[in-house]
Amino acid sequence: MLLLMASLASCAGGPDTDASVTTTNPAQGRPPSPVQVAPQQSWDDAVLYFVILDRFADGDPDNNQDVDRAGPGSFHGGDLTGLIANLDEIADLGCTALWITPVQQQVPGYVSSVGFFDWGYHGYWADDFHAIDPRFGTEDQLAELVEQCHARGMKVLLDVVYNHCGYESRYIQEKGREWLRFGSYCGDDDLTSCLSGLPDFKTDNPEVREYLLEAHLGLADRVGLDGFRLDTVKHVEHDFWQLHRARTRERLGDDFFLLGEVWGGDNEVMEPWFEPDEMDAGIDFSFQGSSIGFALGRGRPIAFNRYLDMREDVREGHFVSHYLSSHDTPGAILTLDGDVELFRLCVALQMTARGIPCVFYGEEVGRRVGDWPENRSDMPWGGLGVLPGEDIDRDEELRGFYKQLIAIRRAHPCLWRGEREGLDFGKHHLVFRRHDSESGDQLLVALNRDAEAAAATVTLPENWNGDATDLLGGARFAAAAGSVELTIPPRSTLILAPTAGE
Length: 502
Ligand SMILES: [Ca+2]
Ligand SMILES: [Ca+2]
Description:
By secondary structure, this protein is an alpha/beta fold. The protein is built from 14 helices and 25 strands. The chain has helices at 80-85, 87-93, 139-152, 170-174, 176-179, 206-223, 238-252, 271-274, 286-295, 301-311, 332-335, 340-351, 396-411, 413-417, and strands at 8-9, 20-21, 36-37, 48-51, 97-100, 104-106, 110-111, 126-132, 155-160, 180-181, 200-201, 227-230, 257-260, 281-284, 319-323, 356-360, 419-425, 429-435, 442-448, 454-459, 468-470, 476-477, 479-480, 483-488, 492-498. Strands 4-5-9-12-13-14-15-16 form an eight-stranded parallel β-barrel. Helix 6 (206-223) packs parallel to helix 7. The protein binds calcium ion (2 copies).
């Protein structure tokens, strides 16, 4: 998002897939509560679900201020109470961890230079780092969210900002240039520039550091968070992040998880933050475009396979988190022109790749995740009647596909910690093997992006016993003389396991 001018106005106002155990109550169409998720063993087998709090569910109309659900940049009323009430929606999908947008008190006005009234509904424009915005809820409700997630087997990451505050925030008046760069005082490099014109904290000033550290770490400590998603990482000094890591370890424990947003980051770009161990994980910005490109028929599958190999070369003990849609990029469904079959190929790629797959709220039911600001539209609740809810029919078949893939992923360590090996490449198809040497678990993944079925003869690994059965659709392919003849249906994925009992 680029804001050319910030003018703030004042305002008055499947088979073999038992990783998540659920049953659906047909009377209500929703599962009984609380839905249990098999807790992640480590962040290796995590599946993350990212929610923009204001756009997910409004559980408390009494805290609504500045709500205009027709306004793309207005508050839509979503809050912690609404999220807590609908956690089963996320747990039932099989996700093991939740990432929510920042909850601090936001600046009391809006920016209009983007062509509409744009408020701090997203939480990135803080006015007071030591207060929770009442539009999102209270600190007790945040603690309740953590407790309710833990009761379901899920972890919670809170998005936090150290780099900047909101436009014309109280800190400009209260602390001025001692603490901030703003207006004509903005620098012109990554560390000192004013991102989108936002006042930039002087994070090399010890007083600023201590203030922000106490705000975020104190909150995490009091409510029991499991980690942070760190915003705008490359705009803050490395020695700050090293101090931050030491402080989170000291106060919140060695397991407190740090997922950093380094814009444009991937496994290699993250190295300067991984090598000194400033954070555990980084957002993988490469996967979305690469997987969409594959689905759209761009490039050769053998080249795409090389990319998939390359992105898994991550420093030991560290992770990248790969997404198909986000609040800062156009969603995959839009980029694929609404083609759900091609989107499913991308989802299959996401769930069979190493790293932490991140599901952006609602894309699992076909939310029209467009370009900004439409990528931040309301969660589609359809007949469930939750507000705010985008007025489209939920694609429950797509949700079922996600659920099945997530369950397969969680049940098969080869998908989240195994080695990968490309086995067969055509003009439009790709077959690769995932193998976990520790458990012996292995699967073949076959994808075909073409409108015609693809035939592939695949040499089976020596320790493959029996035929091959597709965990997604149930089709069985006979093995003969150490190989298997596959027919991959048009624009489809097969996830093949050795046929049980042979
Ligand atoms: Ca509300
Ligand atoms: Ca900065």
